[in-house]
Amino acid sequence: MSGYSCRKCGEACAINMRQHRLALCENDFIEWVRKHTAEFIAKHRMIEPDDRVLVAVSGGKDSLALWSILLDLGFRADGLHIDLGIEGGNGYSERSRQYARRFADGISPGTVLHILNVRDIYGKSVPELARKGVRGRKKFCSACGLVKRHEMNRTARELGYTVLVTGHNLDDEAAVLLGNVLHWETEYMARQLPVLQGNDSGLIKRAKPFARFYERETAAYAIVSGIDYMPDECPFSHGATSLGYKEILNSMENQSPGTKLKFYFEFLRAKKKGLLQGYTPAELRQCGKCGEVTGSSGLCAFCRLIERARLP
Length: 312
Ligand code: AMP
Ligand code: ZN
Description:
Number of strands: 10
Distance between the termini: 59 Å
Largest sheet: 6 strands, mixed
Low-confidence stretches: none
Mean pLDDT: 94
Radius of gyration: 20 Å
Strand content: 5-15%
Bound molecules: adenosine monophosphate, zinc ion
Shape: globular
């Protein structure tokens, strides 16, 4: 593809990763991704052998690749897909669900994909909830994130899973970090970690085993390992601030390969050495209505969104 040959075996290279000064053929690249996923999980103690893992599966490349690797590595990992009811983008949610379903049907028997439909449970889809509760595209994304986080934790808790994993990659994490730095969101920065421990109030441990991989790497993995994934972005993401941050980071990465990796990992290292100590998030308690963990003193933000949407 690029004229380089594989560092491991000398065969034609399938991917050249300038950020790692490493070119690999298809097979060695697949091995490399699996090995580094396992190492990252072990290093951050994301999953212990007796954990029951719930993988949040959107139907996109990251979460399907992650689920497939976790199963290859021998973890007990079921999937959870949340049908958000987004009809735009040529039936975005329905098509996403179909990709997740098809992938699940092709894996080993006994592996479960839970599918949950927001409209069936709460009477309204995410676009309807967001329209009523908050306005604007930016607000849509925050309402959607809120619903996803709430439903992921609730499902994991109710079904007895001990770790919840998502497919967030390095591009996602670096973009969030850039946004947080630009606004000096110190509490969010204090909480931005590849693994967050659970607690006795029902917060389930959360991990991001792909946070060390560039989006280009997870996409290449999905392609070379033959994963059929939903190729489209959410129709609401058009013009999203986070996409703007990703573009800025990509142009810096082009000029200086490794920028994203350094930005994120030096941040984690600085925090380990004490940066942001004392910026602990607000004390958490259980929402009186839904029982989920929240930092607010009344209803949790999710229940407030539902209440607003039910007002005439
Ligand atoms: P996003 O926020 O769309 O970039 O997605 C980040 C991660 O959240 C994905 O890799 C999935 O693990 C999870 N996720 C996003 N959308 C869904 C969904 N509809 N159902 C389940 N998990 C999801
Ligand atoms: Zn609540």
